[in-house]
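Consider the following assembly input.
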Amino acid sequence: DSGVTQTPKHLITATGQRVTLRCSPRSGDLSVYWYQQSLDQGLQFLIQYYNGEERAKGNILERFSAQQFPDLHSELNLSSLELGDSALYFCASSGLGNSYNEQFFGPGTRLTVL
Amino acid sequence: GENVEQHPSTLSVQEGDSAVIKCTYSDSASNYFPWYKQELGKGPQLIIDIRSNVGEKKDQRIAVTLNKTAKHFSLHITETQPEDSAVYFCAAINSGGGADGLTFGKGTHLIIQP
C-alpha cells in the first residue's frame, strides 16, 4: 500500500458527460501528479500540482482540468467525454526534502466511456 | 521532450534464471531513473531507482545500471520467482527542469515459467 488513495475505483459514463476523480496524497506529501494509462498511449503524465499551485503540464487535453485543495487532496475533472478517454487514471504523490522526488502511485480509477 | 524506449516488450524466463530489461532515453538532462512494477489491477509500484551521479545500485535480487554516455539504463532481476511476474516500466525525468512529470517506457511483460 503506497498511502495514496483514489476514488472511485471504477466509473462508467456516457459520451459528452463530465466526471471528477479524487486523489488523497501520502501524509505530508505536497506534490500530486496525474497520469493516464491506455493501451495505445501507455502511461502519460497529465499535470502536477505542488502545494495548491499548478507546477507542470504534460499531455493534458483542454477538456481536462485539475486542482489541489488546501488539505492537499486533488481532483481531476474530465468534461465532454469521448470514447477515447476510456483509460486508467493514476494519481501519484511525492514529498519534500530532496531534489529527486520519488513518486508513489495510487491504485487508480478505471474510467469507461460508453 | 524526453523519449524513453524500452525492450523487450515481453520476456519469458525460467524460474531461478535472471531477467534483464533495457531502456534508452533521449534527453541528456534527465537525472533520475525509477523503475516500477505493475501487477494486474494495481497501480505502479516503485521498486528501485538510480540517480545520474551513480552508475549502479542494488537491492537484494534487483539491480539497476546507468550508462550516461550511451543514455541507457537497465534493470536486472536475479533468481527470479513466480511473484516477479508483472509488467515493468522504466521512466526518466529531469528533476531540475520545468516539468516534473515522469516519461515512461512502454513496459515489459515479464513472465516467470515454473
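Chain A has a mean pLDDT of 93. Ask yourself how this observation constrains the way the partners meet.
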